[in-house]
Amino acid sequence: MTYTLSTESFPTRARSTGFGLVDGVGHVGGGIGVLVITPLIPNMSVLGAMLLVSSFLVAAAIIAQFSPMTRGRYYEEISP
């Protein structure tokens, strides 16, 4: 879903460049997350670790709720 959301957010003439930028930043963020979050998990309780991981999923769900509804619409309508 996030790949589609990031693609639809850019105008047609810049869609592939915008998606590449967003995807690259996502990979960098994932790498930083592994370096920062992974060392914390062994020092946490099982419940704490699950709540930490779940909080990222909840944040993504909240962001998705505020994104524009795009089902059945053309790209040019969403982002001209």
User: In total, how many domains does the architecture comprise?
Assistant: 1
Radius of gyration: 16 Å
Please tally the β strands and state the result.
0
The multimeric state of the shown protein is: single chain
| Basic shape | elongated
H/E topology pattern: HHHH
Distance between the termini: 21 Å
| Helical content (DSSP H or I, runs of 4+) | 55-70%
Uncertain segments of ≥5 residues (pLDDT<50)?
none
Structural class: mainly alpha
Major beta sheet summary: none
Q: State mean pLDDT (0 to 100 scale).
A: 84
The amount of beta strand, in percent, is under 5%
Number of helices: 4
Report on the structure:
By secondary structure, the protein is mostly helical. The protein has one domain. 68% of the residues lie in helices and 0% in strands. It is built from four helices and no strands. Helix 1 packs across helix 2. The radius of gyration is 16 Å and the shape is elongated. The relative contact order is 0.15.
